[in-house]
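Whether sequence alone determines local backbone shape is best considered at the level of individual chains. Part of our work consisted of pairing the sequence of a single chain with a tokenised description of its backbone. This step matters because it turns folding into a mapping between discrete strings. For completeness, the protein is quoted in full, as a sequence line and a line of structure tokens:

_____
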Amino acid sequence: MNLEALLIIELALLGIGTGFLAGLLGIGGGMLMVPFITLILSHRGVSPDLSVKMAIASSMATIIFTSIASVRAHHKRGAVRWNIVRRLAPGIVVGSIIGSLGVFALLKGAYLAIFFGLFVSFSATQMFLDKKPSPTRQMPGTAGQLVAGGFIGFMSGLVGAGGGFISVPFMTWCNVAIHSAVATSAALGFPIAVANVLGYVISGQNVQDLPAGAFGYIWLPALAVIAVCSFMTAPLGARAAHKLPVSKLKRVFASILYVLAAYMLYKGLSS
């Protein structure tokens, strides 16, 4: 088997697993994709600094496609709070551009890997404990949601995630019903992904030693294969969620995330 065929198989398996788990557990695939794409790129001779950045950017790019499928399903059930989307989206776009076009380009990949590892460790702990914030207030006004959207977009751009681990707890804390918070977070994934990808493409145009198939920081082979496979398996995961013990599976997945976080911390600290 040649290297290209092996690469396609590796990316396809990653896409299948990512899509299924996204549908099953209601998570974005970034926390799973970034460590594995980093590993794949590293094995292909890409420098540690660049492999981390390309993994984060490529992971974010796949969210453009997976969010569309997710939003359609949630919208049919009337679960998306479009009034919240309209107020958070402008801040998300601004925060995403600042993160992906500015800070992301300036930071070394080692620092991003360490930040990613810490972020995933925190998210895994939240998932393991299944902690949900108590609803203590209402959604803030337009200015408050603009600031909140900016923070969500900025943080998402630095870790290559769709923002669900920030936006869902925030909306739940503001008395938005959990199913609406998840559905609205899925809708927010699209502007987060589009704005960040634009920043990754522009900021990566003059980077040296990019591997074949790179478009800025986006690695197109990973985007194409993972997007197609995850798009197909996400609905299967959503159906399985109604039959499997999701709360127990979340704890198992959280344990896996700790291992992936440890790998990214190792990559960052050893670079």
User: Anything to note?
Assistant: The chain has one domain: 3-270. The radius of gyration is 17 Å.
